Amino acid sequence: MAKTTTKAKTATSTPPATTPDKRTLKPHELVLSPTIQNAIGIQTWGKFAGDADLSELLEDLHERVKKVQGGDMQPVEAMLFGQAMTLQTIFTSLARRAAHNDGLKQFQVNLTLALKAQAQCRATLEALAEIKNPRPVAFVKQANISSGPQQVNNGVAAPLAYQYAQAREAHAGQNTSLQNGLLEAPHGIELDTRAQSTAGGADPHLEAVAAGHRATHA
Known about the structure:
Blueprint: H1 27-32, H2 34-45, H3 54-69, H4 74-99, H5 104-132, H6 160-172
Helix pairs in contact: 2-3, 4-5
């Protein structure tokens, strides 16, 4: 029996590309450069326009990238608007195709794809509007709103005495509050500021001391 042999398909090699200064690019530059990768992708998917020379394509793309990096957003705006128009065409085509389908399954498939194209068209137009009219950036200061026994410190250190008191309370495991604390007075100050009452019959031990029972020396 004759032995059949199969030939492996050889991958199409990318032609060598050159930089605008006519320098041949090295393999690692072809892999790492995003501009070169995009040029190769455009060349691969742009076969409808014929076989574009990679070096010329890279040079033209490099000039366009420099314009965008310099602040000229007209190429980006033209690209987004063109994509939005293409998506609008896809939506119209799929919607018309769904309208002529008698089967429910095919109708759902075409209409679902049409609505996805419409959503992508809307997102593209929103991106274009964001580039044309950027939203203003608002700088709002921090607002501290708290209820209950909460403390918020925004970059201001508390006094050392307060920090020491807080650390002592945390170590002791006690929660001291001005509202729940004991009513105390400093040493030597009476809490009852009323005048002394006179002695009565019910409390004879509170009567004034007579002259004979007083101390010899005041």
